[in-house]
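In this section we walk through a basic example: taking a raw amino acid sequence and producing a predicted 3D structure, encoded as discrete structure tokens. The instruction is simple. Fold the sequence below.
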Amino acid sequence: MKQVWKLFPVCGLCLCLTGCVKMALRLTPSFIPRLSQTFFEECDADLAGASLPASLKLMEGLLKNDPENRRILTALCTGFSGYALLFVEDENPETASSLYLRARDYGLKALGWQVPSRGMGNLASNVIRKRLESVGSGGLEALFWTTMAWNAWINLNLDQPAALGQLSAAQACLERVLEIKPDFFYGAPYILMGTILSAMPGPLGGDAAKARQFFEKSLEMSKGKFFLAQYYFARYYAVRAQNKRLFLKLIEQVRKTAPDELREVCLINAVMKRKIEHLQEMTDDLFLCTSDPAD
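The resulting token sequence is shown next.
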């Protein structure tokens, strides 16, 4: 009995600390968004790749103290999406798929949506579209990163019926982002739409001509300083169209531009610069046609 009584001060301290953390998070609403901002501004890709997993786990610990905190949920959605995209997808698609689903579910919770216990395949696209009507500029960040994670997961699992079954709902989310603010995050919604239209076969809604229009809009918005646009434009559209001239032109744009010319996304630019160098090394394997269409 004495041992039980000794535990009461410890339990009280834990409860007190939990309450203090929760209160601190709510009294400093800008703290979490600044963590995401700092992450994307980091120009050292190796440092970011090594430190991000620990930062995400720390944030998940903070979430346990305040499970409904939409800022933390949004930051986790952003962080896991970015980590999978930049550091995991190319080397380990299976792990990236899991991280994208984790990000998507955090994003859905940030939007105030319940994730069905049997999975998103049981949530009809018309239900998603109805919910999207209530999402405005205040929920844009959460919606965009949820959309990014969801579509990235689908793109990695096009051979799975479960992924194809969610395509319509994920597409509806992207369409809503484009309605609210198409230039969000330096035209990233245009990049995502261009990638989807390039990657999907015709029967699933792919359209190379429209894809190019979206990519060109994204390049115009960032003045060519957001390398995510050039990388996906080259990797998906130029390769599908077998337009080697355009492919090499996009690579050259990235090669001669410094990642920190757009400081807010320096990390993404630094990683994309590496990825596009690797893409260039694969040129002969990617382009089999001897003729090259005009850009």
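Looking at the output, two observations stand out. Residues 2-27 form the longest helix (26 residues). Confidence is low (pLDDT under 50) at residues 1-21. In the next section we compare this with other chains.
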